[in-house]
Design a protein that fits this description.
5-stranded parallel beta sheet; 5 helices; about 40% helix; about 20% strand
């Protein structure tokens, strides 16, 4: 069965850019979802878990760091990989979000090669 992806970012334009860049990386997903913030992402996860979440940090209603903590509390999402995608790039923040349960971090601006590098290990 193919993989599923959710892109969580408060900017619809950024969600489209991320999706296009993921496609350019050569990675293929059978199902893709979008959410504008953490609250919306949690609602969508109730309808079915996804394999990989690409998540911004700074969003209204529920930020990405809070979303990571909440997803890690959902038993059905134990296998879900969460990669943060953000302009925030301090090592302290990256270490903190990884400690909270994220599986990786991609700094904006990003390239198809960066998505390939970070997501490929989770595609098997």
């Amino acid at each position: 069965m193919g993989k599923s992806l959710m892109i969580v970012d408060d900017s619809a334009t950024m969600r489209k850019i991320i999706m296009r860049t993921v496609r350019m990386s050569g990675l293929e997903f059978d199902r893709t979802e979008e959410a504008g913030n953490g609250v919306e992402a949690l609602e969508k996860l109730k309808g079915g878990v996804v394999d990989i979440i690409l998540c911004d940090i700074n969003m209204p209603e529920m930020c990405g760091t809070d979303l990571v903590k909440r997803v890690r509390q959902i038993p059905d999402c134990n296998g879900t990989k969460i990669i943060m995608v953000s302009t925030e790039s301090s090592q302290e923040l990256i270490d903190s979000v990884i400690a909270d349960g994220a599986n990786g971090f991609i700094c904006k601006p990003f390239t198809p090669e960066k998505f390939q590098e970070k997501l490929s290990p989770f595609m098997n």
